[in-house]
Amino acid sequence: MAAAKGSTGTSQSLERGLAILSSFDSDRPLIGVSELSRELDLSRSTTHRYIATLAQLGYLQQDPQSKRYRLGPKVLDLGFSAINSMDLREVAAPHLRLLSDETGFTVNLAILDGADVVYIERCRTARPGQRDIDLNLHVGARLPAYCTAMGKAILAFVPEERLDEIIPKIDFVLRGPNTITSATAFRKELAHVREAGVAVNDEERAYGLRSIAAPVNSQSGEVVAALNLAVHRTMVSPDELIARFAPVVLKTARDISLGMGHRVAPA
Prior knowledge:
By secondary structure, this protein is α+β, with helices and mostly antiparallel strands. Helix content is 42%, strand content 18%. The chain has two domains: 12-78, Arc Repressor Mutant, subunit A; 86-259, GAF domain (Beta-Lactamase, 2-Layer Sandwich). The protein has helices at residues 12-22, 33-40, 44-56, 73-84, 87-103, 149-155, 160-166, 183-196, 238-259; strands at 60-62, 69-71, 106-113, 116-123, 142-144, 199-202, 209-217, 223-232. Helix 2 (33-40) packs across helix 3 and helix 5 (87-103) packs antiparallel against helix 9. Mean pLDDT is 88; it is low at 1-5.
């Protein structure tokens, strides 16, 4: 039997299956059938049928204790295949490693996906204290953009009309001691980032975490990613973070942008 078509000529079954997969995130890794049924406005039996199919194919797994579901290994395979196919990651990797080796701190690269940033590369350091701010991050990890330096470094340079679409979707929840919790204050922060060229996270995502980030441009000049250098609050003060590391973070971002074919004006 042919799959039911949506109002736009697309496959309704595929849309529903992808909507189920999109419901899972790092803040909610386990979801039950009834919960998904309510959120997607589907009957429980219909939702269970979709979930059973996705589980059989390896895209979902059932937790044996709670009977709720989590994303399965097939989703991870797709994610890594997408990440590994990115020219950006290949171009950036040696520059990130060099920056991490020169400074002794962990360096990350992320792209924007909706109102989140997704980590696509990490160069971790074994420096004592770094583990305290790793927050179980890994390639493929997703964080809210508004409370991260990389998120602010990207959002500061997206077109205004796109920013107008993204900001209303942000839930400005207090996550760290200095989280920005209003859209007005966030827009002011992005204006400051545009002026400075770098974004700073001073314990906005979590206690103890500081980082500085700079945007990476594609060949067309569009900001496609950002890189950051992360430190623990006991290692570097906010002023020192900018004074010591802004130049090398900016240089690394420029080098990656050049590798992507973007013509960067002389510093």
